[in-house]
Design goal:
The complex is a heterodimer of chains A (about 290) and B (about 80). Chain A is α/β, with parallel strands linked by helices. Chain A is built from six helices and six strands. In chain B, the strands form two sheets. Chain B has a five-stranded mixed beta sheet, with no helix packed on it. In chain B, strands 4-3-6-7-10 form a five-stranded antiparallel beta sheet, with no helix packed on it. Classes of the chains: A alpha/beta (about 290), B mainly beta (about 80).
Chain lengths: ~290, ~80
């Protein structure tokens, strides 16, 4: 029964692994729900801000706002890549890194210098491994991002853009469509693409002036775009982890079934053989 | 009555109807009562009071804007606390 003992050991190993993946699945599920609530809770602000900017924006204002400046050519661009700090979430980070690499290659192909800003251990680890210099490396953003995190990430970029040392800023992050769909996306946050106006603006009294309000709100709009990317990536990470851990748990169950079946068959074969030997032995005595 | 919502980047802090709103605008406090003309103003730093004498809620806010339209008031602020 040497084989039987070996099989039993393997069954126990797989069972222990399944316990771990099952727990991680449950943890990810509850974290994902909370992260999802944060995604939903951030929507009213984005909508309110978008409405007002769309209402106040007119194309002839574009020249007067540095954040709306449309450079003729992109000479220097920044890519802000958001990844997770932890692994075991399937292809989540790999997809984000691939998206970022594609974008960087495209920008370089168009003749732009690209500076890379990376959030999350996984992205940093990859780009350190391939020897690509990063201007900013951040691992201090938790899975509960705050609005200040977004501000600290993008304020420097806005200053550089305003000063003219950057011509475009892209954010590579995950969209949270559902637990099983968290595709990587690229969004250009600078120069700002003002949202489209849906209807005519009511006759507002504006204090101090449309221009002053836009000056104040455009940076908020950019910060909010980054904040949204942060919360969606955080939710996406949990969703991807849940899916990955669910698959792992299912695979472990299947493996256990196969191993148990093999074990039972081996046990049965052993018993049959013993009986045959006894019967054979008894027959030889007669 | 005024329908008021107070919105921060992270969540909606308040939603409901109140009699009056006093908000810290960029150049001093602004009071809003029902039937106010459509208005949009930048906000400064200070205390937002909902209801008479802040009876329906008080928030410390900083930055953002306030919008009044058809007796509905939207306070959209960058930073807010109770």
């Amino acid at each position: 029964m040497a084989k039987g003992r070996e099989l039993k050991r393997r069954i126990r190993t797989v069972e222990n692994t399944r316990k771990i993946t099952r727990t991680m699945e449950l943890v990810a599920t509850s974290r994902m729900k909370r992260a999802q609530d944060r995604v939903t809770a951030a929507r009213p602000y984005a909508r309110a801000l978008g409405d007002v900017i769309a209402g106040l924006y007119t194309p002839d204002l574009a020249d007067r706002f540095p954040l709306l400046r449309q450079p003729a050519a992109t000479h220097r661009a920044a890519v802000l890549l958001l990844t997770s700090n932890r692994g075991l979430c399937g292809g989540f980070n790999a997809n984000l890194i691939r998206e970022a690499r594609g974008l960087i290659a495209r920008l370089r192909g168009e003749g732009a210098d690209v500076e890379l800003h990376v959030v999350g251990r996984k992205g940093i680890g990859y780009f350190r491994y391939v020897g690509q210099p990063m201007k900013v490396q951040r691992t201090d953003i938790t899975d509960r991002p705050r609005a200040e995190d977004a501000a600290s990430l993008v304020d420097g970029l806005m200053a550089d853009f305003t000063a003219g040392s950057l011509d475009a800023v892209y954010v590579v992050s995950a969209r949270f469509r559902s637990a099983i769909s968290t595709p990587p996306t690229t969004e250009r946050v600078l120069p700002v693409d003002p949202p489209k106006r849906t209807g005519p603006l009511p006759d507002y009294l504006l204090y101090p002036s449309a221009e002053a309000i836009l000056t104040e709100l455009l940076p908020s709009y950019v910060r909010n775009a980054v904040y949204r990317a942060l919360v969606e990536t955080a939710a996406g990470e949990q969703g991807a982890r849940r899916t990955a851990m669910k698959n792992a748990t299912d695979n472990a169950s299947e493996m256990m079934n196969t191993l148990t079946r093999t074990y039972n068959r081996a046990r049965q074969a052993g018993i049959t053989q013993e009986i045959a030997e006894i019967v054979g032995g008894a027959a030889a005595l007669e | 009555m005024l329908t008021v919502s107070v919105i921060s980047p992270e969540r909606v802090l308040f939603e409901g109807t109140v009699d009056a709103v006093v908000a810290p605008a960029f150049d001093g406090e602004v009071g809003i009562l029902p039937k106010h003309a459509p208005m949009m103003t930048l906000l400064g730093k200070g205390e937002l009071r909902l209801g008479v004498e802040g009876s329906a809620g008080r928030f410390r806010i900083e930055g953002g804007f306030l919008q009044v339209l058809n007796d509905s008031v939207r306070v959209v602020t960058e930073r807010a606390g109770e």
